[in-house]
Amino acid sequence: MSPLPDPAAALAIFGSLVLLAAILFWPERGIVPRLRRLVELSERVRLEDAVKHLFNSAAAGRTASVDSLAGAVGVSRDRTVEVARELTRLGLARLEGEVIALTEAGRAHALRVIRTHRIWERYLADRTGVGAAEWHALADRLEHKASADEVDRLAASMGDPVYDPHGDPIPTASGVLPPARGLPLSAVAAGASARVVHIEDEPGQVYRSLRAAGVNVGCLVRLDRVDPAGLHLLADGRPVVIDSLAALNLVVELVEEDDTEEGLERLDAIRPGEEAIVVRLGAQIHGAQRRRLLDLGIVPGTVVRAELSSLSGDPVAYRIRGAVIALRRAQADDIVVRRRPRKEAA
Question: Quick check: do 183-259 and 264-345 share a fold?
Fold first, then answer.
């Protein structure tokens, strides 16, 4: 006669099985639903990255192929063929041999993805402390996780911006792409002044080097000369030398002679006892730091007087609208000003 099972042990085993089933299959939070969502998200990411690549290739006048798509999506050639076939099945692309092109539906889908990406970049630049070097990669991840309604609400909260922080046009909710602006810096004659309206953010190393040199969207540049060392520019009053590769990443708009803003300097150059008028905040100041400076009254037209510097020379105290605040030299170096003549200051 076999012994009866221990009720406590049986209950423990049953409870363990129930707990395991809950861990595995609990709606939304279980391991299996989470894995399913990850797989679905991976598929969505591949398809959306694919339509973006096809759109960008067409915009640049290039033919997209299975090989180019494999590089953009980051999977094997065989897997890319499956992606291309899935795009065709969904009516987003058509195959002509190895050439892949978007359909009208595919172009509309690509514009929605691009809109989401650029709205996120605008948000990261304006509303967060995320560094400029991280905007693109972070937006690449976020663009696949937001619905169209969420993106529209995010855009509305920022006043429906037309351009992202790099100067790229943001497609509207209805799929209209604003026109690109400007001409390449290479088309500007020596001695001419122009305003930077777009900086290509890839390759990342070139983009970072331009920002480090103080060349940003919105800054005024004057091309002095070109020699073997590179292009010699005056960028918001600061001499800068960039190479021809970096120049390819810059798009500018020519400005009229009376809009050249001669005599621009950085606030860091103003010594104690001297005054300057704020022209603008440099484009490299963004997010929370930009809002703080604006809240302190550092806005165009404000008179700033350098009062005194610390023993180490950093920070420096400035009088702004009756209040004295301390700014690090790195911060003052990003504030574009025009020196106020001493007799005028007096």
Answer: yes
